[in-house]
Structures are given as C-alpha cells and as structure tokens.
Amino acid sequence: MIHTCLKGNDSCEYLLSSGRFLGEKVWQPHSCMMHKYKISEAKNCLVDKHIAFIGDSRIRQLFYSFVKIINPQFKEEGNKHENIPFEDKIASVKVDFLWHPEVNGSMKQCIKVWTEDSVAKPHVIVAGAATWSIKIHNGSNEALSQYKMNITSIAPLLEKLAKTSDVYWVLQDPVYEDLLSENRKMITNEKIDAYNEAAVSILNSSTRNSKSNVKMFSVSKLIAQETIMESLDGLHLPESSRETSAMILMNVYCNKILKPVDGSCCQPQPPLTLIQKLAACFFTLSIIGYLIFYVIHRNAHRKNKPCTDLESGEEKKNIINNPASPLEILLQSFCKLGLIMAYFYMCDRANLFMKENKFYTHSSFFIPIIYILVLGVFYNENTKETKVLNREQTDEWKGWMQLVILIYHISGASTFLPVYMHIRVLVAAYLFQTGYGHFSYFWIKGDFGIHRVCQVLFRLNFLVVVLCIVMDRPYQFYYFVPLVTVWFMVIYVTLALWPQIIQKRANGNCFWHFGLLLKLGFLLLCICFLAYSQGAFEKIFSLWPLSKCFELKGNVYEWWFRWRLDRYVVFHGMLFAFIYLALQKRQVLSEGKGEPLFSNKISNFLLFISVVSFLTYSIWASSCKNKAECNELHPSVSVVQILAFILIRNIPGYARSVYSSFFAWFGKISLELFICQYHIWLAADTRGILVLIPGNPMLNIIVSTFIFVCVAHEISQITNDLAQIIIPKDNSSLLKRLACIAAFFCGLLILSSIQDKSRH
C-alpha cells in the first residue's frame, strides 16, 4: 500500500505504535530513525519542563528509566507504593511518579486537578493501569465493566489536557504466564488484551468528528512480546526493554525541539530557505528553457527532413547533423541536474521516504566485500601500459576502495574498531593519490596555468556546491571535498612558487632536485606546525570568508580534526612520485610487459618486506582498543600499508599488466559516489539508510543502489560537460567567467548571511 512506502507526517504515530528489533537490543521504529539521547541533550530539551507519570508498577518502571536518561545515578529505592519525585534544579527539570495503580476515582481526581485553569499543568503526562484491577478482582468481568466506566469518565479530562500538554496512554504489556506467582495467575494475556481494547476504543472515541489528541503508547507491547521471557517475575519488563520505551518517549517529545540529524521520527519537514527557493526557480527555468529549445530544434529538424528526388527516387539530404551547441549542452545539463536534485531533496529532506537506523553485524559487512571482490577479479583486462600506478590501475584502486567504503557506511561498521582503522587507510590512500597524481602532472608537464587549476577545482567542487545550496548544508559537511581541494592548492602553491622546479629543468642540473627537496622539507615543517598548533590553525580558517567554508556547528574543530587525521599522507604521495619519477628517468626500473620491477632478488626481497609490513599493520589495526590513541598514530603509520600495497601490486610484471575493469569503472566516478551516498543511498545525512521498498531489505538495497550508481554516473557526465563550457581554454574568456563565478559566490555569501541572521 502507498502509505507504507511513504512516510509523510505519520512518523510520530509509527514511533508510538510499530517497529522491530535489529539484533537483540536495537529497536527500529517503522519508517523513521530513533536518536539515542545523551544526558546533556535530554536536559537541554527538558529545561523548565514538568513530566508526570501516573499509574502502576509498570509505569513506575518507565518513570525510572526515563529519569535515568537525565541522571544515570538516580537509584530505584523508597516505598514502591508511594509517589516518587525527581528534580534537577540546575537544569530546571521536574519529573514525578504518581502512584495510582487503578483507573478509578483517585486517578480521576488527580487528573481533574490539572484541568483547572489556576493549576500549572505538566508538559507531558504518561498514564496507564490495568493489571491491579485484574489482580484485585480476580479477573472478573465486572471489573472489566467497571474499568470501562472509569476510563470513560477520565477520557474527557485527558482530552482537555491534551490540548495544551502531550498526553500518552500506555497500553498494557503482555505477561509471561509461566513465571507469574500464584497471586498473579489471574493476570492473563487474554485479560490484558480485553483491557487494552477497551482503553483504545474509549479514548479514540472521546472526541466527535476528529481524531483524539490522547496518543496511544502501544509500542511497548511489541517490545514486551520479544523480551518478556527475560522477565524475573513474568510481569515486569527487563531493564533493556524499559530503556527502549523511555528512549521512545524522549524521541517523541524532544525530536521536534532539538531536531537531531539521526532522529527523523516526529520531525517536521524543514522549511525551504531563500537560497533553496532561488535554486528551485533556476532549475525550473532550466527545464522549461530546455523543453522550449528541444521543441524548436525538433520542428526545425522536421522542416529540413530529407526529400525524395522524383527522377532518381533517391533521398536528398538537405542538412548535416551539427554537433550540439554550447547553449543546448548547458540547458540539457541543468535540466538533468534539476531533476536529479529534486530526487535528492525528496529522498533526504522532504520526509517522503522512510529512513532506518544502521545496525552492524560482521556478515553485513564482510559478505558484500567478498561478493564485490569476486566480481572484480572476474572482470579483468590487459592494461594499455605497464608503468607503476598507470591510469587503469589507479582507477581500479579508487574503485575497489570506494566500494569498500560504501559498504562500510551502509553497514554501520564504524562501530567495529578494526574495520574503522582499515577504512582510515583507504581514505588516506585517496589523499596519497592526490599528492602523487597532481605532483606528477606539475613535475612532468610544468603547466601552472590558471585553466588547469580552474578545471580541477570545478570538477572537485561543482556537485558539492550544488548540494550545499539544494540540501542546505555547509561546505565542510562534505568533508572529503574540502580536504582534497585544500591539498590540491597546497601542492599547486608549493610547486608554482619561485623557483618553479620541473622535471625538464631538473634534468640538466641535479642541484634543482635538491631545491625541490628543500621545498618539500619546508612544506613538511608547515604541516607539523599546524598539526601541533591548533590555535594557529583555527585562527587561519576562522577568518572570513574561509570560516563560511570550513566551519561546522559554529567552529572549525571538525575541519582541524579531519585535516590532522591524514596530515602527512599527501606529502608522502608527493615524495613517492618524486622518487619514482627520478628512478624511472634513470632507467633503474624495468616496466616492460611481464617484467618484474627490479631484478629477481631485489623484487623477491621487497615483496617479502611488503607482505610482512602489510600484515603487520593489519594485525596492529585489528588489535586497537582505543580509537583516540589509534587515530593519534594513524597519520604516521598509514603510509606503511599504502606503500606495501603499491609494491605488491606493481613489482610482479604479470600483476602490473592486468587490471579489473569492474573496479576501474567505479573508480572513474568514485568522487560522485562518495558525495551522492550522503543523501540518496544513505539517509539523514549518512546517519541512516534510505528505504524505498519497505519490508524487503535485500530488494530495497538492490533498487536504491541501482538508482544511486546511475545518478552518480550521470552527474559525472554532467560535470565533465559543464567543465568544458564554463572553464574555457581562452584566458580572456576564462577571466570573464571567473568574474561571474566570483559575483555568484559573493551573492551566495550575502544571502547566506541574511539566512543565518533570520534563523538566530
């Protein structure tokens, strides 16, 4: 049915009424994501709030679990059959438990007091009771009839309170009858179901011609069905189940206040910003413009259709198909991009599709890894050239790394430290290739022209800039692109500054090699200084307008952390490129087809050292116990496994002569895959998983992955097409375009500042 596929505004209702366990203790609400609230977040949400729990011992359990989110040291002590107060004076939070084990006149009087205008009402009321009525009256039908009468008299009072407060009626959880003591044997699941049906029927019909404002908290029934057998007495739920119910209550109330990224339940759709509205207008005009252009072009084509020569009977061709004009390519590209961005927005901003929390298992990570590795090995071809790190090989390397990173993200494997440490090496390897590739280009070509710089910056940043506008996210949110952009500029400045040392000049005099090493040494000193001087780093990137690019949540700490985590690897890539090209120039390496890179003895020795180094790093990474400590060592040691892999992959001639076309294809669109996953494969800004087809995880992954890969490939084509038009080779035209781009970003900064002021 349609309503099960689309979330709409029912996520709050789904959170309160449906869900399932992922594994043993992770609760997954139907259609949305649940945030796990920390102490500080809970206090921030509930400041100056009063929450009241009213009911029996099961409600008391829920009260304790709720309070422990705010104060984990709160102890379950005191007389169980009395009211229990809790107050955090610093946070100004008040939570009370009121002992009313039966739905009777006593409970009614307590609720009635709150309905009076002169009395301060709780902001949240959680009520429920039934098992005591069953127990005291031995499960008689008369007790059920009395329960119906009492709840009927209470219903209008709850409805009146629900107009100004959040009111939840907790339905009764099932019991584990085999564990019940003799004095509780009359509390059967059949009786509990009858009481629940009565409560739902009466409370839902308490208002005429409109939906009741009293919300049914029925999800605890589903939780209890899975966990009640772990109960100590058959009646009260185990602690983990109570904690889940309390966290659901916290999500229901606080998500709409704090708006956590990974708490999509109960969150309203964010309003469109001014920049988003302008972007929507631009893409709409582009689509209309392209359609008009297409219709005009098609009509012109029809008028110039080949006509038949009456004498010869042959067709005369009146026109020659001209290549598409720049205007047509521009309109077509923005038309396609507009449709793609609409899909992005619907997936991750419009609350249209479901989102689910990630849940890590070893099988969910390692089985897909094995599957793609088998596919990658199956599709192999001969390389066009057999040089170290040739184009096909680097595309292959990027491809399999990107696929592993994607599986890592969707499986939630970041919670497993050994996998996390190995993925950090893959990210470092991308940056290593950045250093290697750009250094090699500038060293060999000596092309420091503005066209090259603009081409690279455009290809790296175009998609991210569009997403920042459409998805209303800061530039630093897509952290990898700022990282490679800054490192590209560092490489460019290092090599372009006087004296410009390139291979052609250095071949004539070895002194220039020494000069380049001095440049690299100075770069390393700058990196070390910034790495160990957080204050200086933050001052540089907190300057306007850099702060607009690199701030996240009001500071640049996240940017400093990301930069520092792989601070040496780009330098390592540049140094490796310099040494490799120097050895290649002196013909020390044997790069012929099928030939080992060095002599047999040296090749075998280096292969042995590489394999040992590779395995040693993996053993160290797998034995990591503390993420912070391992992250501190990572910048210095990640290069070991990267160099080991390069040598293992390139020393044997047969390994250097083949590549996986499967991985290489993905490698060509690796940047687009990395960025697009944020919104159309994952969800809630990578914190969850997008659900296009509910109820069938395998089919959902297949469909969403197919769309995701197709979109990434199409965006890659669009970026390449637009780069040719927007970044022309002619310097005078390029300078005019750059002036227009500068004006665009100035306007964007002004609009962004206006938006920030209106938000605050």
Automatic annotation (TrEMBL):
EC number(s) from the headed UniProt entry: 2.3.1.45
Predominant subcellular localization, coarse grouping: Golgi
InterPro entries: Cas1_AcylTrans_dom, NXPE4_C
Transmembrane segments: 274-296, 329-347, 359-379, 400-421, 456-472, 478-498, 510-532, 565-583, 604-621, 663-683, 689-713, 734-754
The entry's keywords: Acyltransferase, Glycoprotein, Golgi apparatus, Membrane, Transferase, Transmembrane, Transmembrane helix
GO terms assigned for molecular function: N-acetylneuraminate 9-O-acetyltransferase activity
Cellular component terms per the entry's GO annotation: Golgi membrane
Reactions listed under catalytic activity: CMP-N-acetyl-beta-neuraminate + acetyl-CoA = CMP-N-acetyl-9-O-acetyl-beta-neuraminate + CoA; CMP-N-acetyl-beta-neuraminate + acetyl-CoA = CMP-N-acetyl-7-O-acetyl-beta-neuraminate + CoA; a ganglioside GD3 (d18:1(4E)) + acetyl-CoA = a ganglioside Ac-O-7-GD3(d18:1(4E)) + CoA
Top-level class of the enzyme under EC nomenclature: transferase
Domain Cas1p 10 TM acyl transferase as annotated: residue spans: 259-738
GO biological process annotation, one example: carbohydrate metabolic process
Protein topology in the membrane: Multi-pass membrane protein
Compartment(s): Golgi apparatus membrane
Superkingdom of origin: Eukaryota
Sequence ranges assigned to domain NXPE C-terminal in this UniProt record: 27-82
Family: Belongs to the PC-esterase family. CASD1 subfamily.
UniProt name for this protein: N-acetylneuraminate (7)9-O-acetyltransferase
Record gene name: CASD1
